[in-house]
Amino acid sequence: MAIKVTLPTAFTRHTDGRKQFDSVAANLPALIADIDQTFPALGTQIKDDDGKLRRFINIYVNDEDIRFLGGETYSFQDGDEVMLIPSIAGGCF
Amino acid sequence: MNYSCTRYELKCNECGKRYGNQPLSGCPDCLAPLEIVYDLEAARGVFTREAIAAGPANIWRYAALLPIPDGFQPDLPVGFTPLVKATNLGKRIGATNLFVKNDAVCFPTLSFKDRVVSVALANAQRFGFETVGASSTGNLANSVAAQAARLGLKASILVPADLEPAKILNTQVYGARLIRIDGNYDHVNRLCTLIADEYNWGIVNVNLRPYYAEGSKTVGYEIAEQLGWRLPDNVVVPMAGGSLIRKIRKAFQELIYLGLVEDKAVRFFGAQATGCSPISTAVKQGTDYIEPQRPNTIARSLAIGNPADGPAAAKMIRDSGGWAEDVSDVEIVSGMQELAETEGIFTETAGGVTTAVTARLYAHGRISPDELTVTCITGNGLKTTDALTGYYREERAVRPRLADFDAYLRELDGTAEPELVAAGGK
Fold first, then answer.
1. Cis? peptide before B82, omega within 30° of 0
2. Into how many domains does chain B fold?
3. ipTM of predicted assembly, 2 dp
């Protein structure tokens, strides 16, 4: 089982320019642990002082906000496309 | 792609790092939103009541505290919309000191978005972008399209596919490229984030966002000036992304700091539709995070289910002693009708939200009748006429004879008015 992870350009300075990588993480906590292992500098950047994912990062699974799928409890499915995107304050009205 | 300026620059809200002036919305280090900060001491003596009064009757009278590049020659007379005493609406909802800030007549495209777009595009030009864009639920699309046409910039604008036909037409007519996305606004916004990452485009509410958002301050400046350089007790503001309400407060604080108005604790009240109410829910529950929602409301211009300024807006509202409310689609339409019938202001669904929420705040005693209160109307009803479909009958044609006219009037008077659901106050 593998998932495909896509990163924004702002993160690629910590990944030797790579925007995509594959992971066998079973869920979000496992993916963050995987990032810690593979790209330690990125792991530091995306977490706050308490070791939690920064609140300015949104995680999407196949275009769906992971919070609608159960957040940390969601089990990644084979082939899931996971995106990390900084949340841009989105005013539109 | 950056410029230096001593008057203002980008600063991270969280870690405090400064980034000069460049098309960048998030801190590269901690990812928090960037905001424009000013050298307020330098503005002292420049940003005065007298200097402002001598300026043009539009938002450019406040240019000294807007992120406008040196040498920029303002073109369009944006803003400075009417602030009207809402005596009739007040009688209906139990308010004796209520004003309406009417951005339904903002120039050039009839919404408050004209303010933010004019500031964003001034910077887009300065940064050298040839193509500008936006993710939008309509009003922003209209404004970017119109103002880009005027400035000779190419515009590519992304909207949710189910947008109101009037808002689509009002974008296309200016020659902008309109791209309908099969998804809701949050999908569109996320795609625009990816586009800004890959394309050399100035997307007003993504990589130009810190500049764009500052344009909202002009609503606050105008309210204070139009009240005779004093601050209201309360402000009621519609919330989509949660930016406007914070920027009005920022404007008030700058005015206090520079001595243009007396210090005063203004209470801020946020308005949302129940079908998309992540910020009002956070305010009511006292949480410091936003639980995202899937929007389902006729107030499409407020339908942001995952507002990134939401946590800050919710906190600011609570800290000010204010509150937030949300109203149903039926109440939204009633709010539109009430404002039109009482004050002659035809607002879009978002204004129906604001009006209905204002009514409820009085009904629940959160705002006292005699407190000086301003309710912010941000868009024009002509853009969302579909919300009123079925609410008004198409009457039969009357023959052009006085007798027929008399008979017709008697016929009408014998007909009971359809009962309207009172806005708010339930």
1. no
2. 2
3. 0.86
Q: Which residues of A touch B292 (CB under 8 A)?
A: 65, 67-68
CB contact under 8 A, B31 and A68: no
Say whether residue B201 is in contact with chain A using an 8 A CB cutoff. Answer: no
Q: Is A57 on the interface with B (CB under 8 A)?
A: yes
Q: Are B80 and B57 in contact (CB under 8 A)?
A: yes
* B189 contacts in chain A (CB < 8 Å): 88, 90, 92
Number of domains in chain A: 1
Q: Which two tokens stand for residue B337?
A: 């009708």
Is B32 touching A (CB cutoff 8 A)? Answer: yes
Q: Is residue B52 part of a domain?
A: no
Residue A93 lies in a domain: no
Each residue's pLDDT, cut to its tens digit, for chain A (93 residues) gives 899 999 988 888 899 999 999 999 999 999 999 999 999 999 988 888 888 888 888 899 998 899 999 999 999 999 999 999 887 643 333
Give the Cα separation of B180 and B289 in Å (integer).
30
Asked if B306 lies within 8 A of A90 by C-beta distance, the reply is yes
CATH of residue A24's domain is 3.10.20.30
What CATH number is attached to the domain comprising B120? 3.40.50.1100
Q: Which residues make Cβ contacts (< 8 Å) with residue B372, sequence separation at least 6?
A: B97, B99, B227, B232, B233, B234
Beta-carbon contacts below 8 Å between A and B? 119
Is B322 found in the same domain as B191?
no
pTM assigned to the model: 0.93
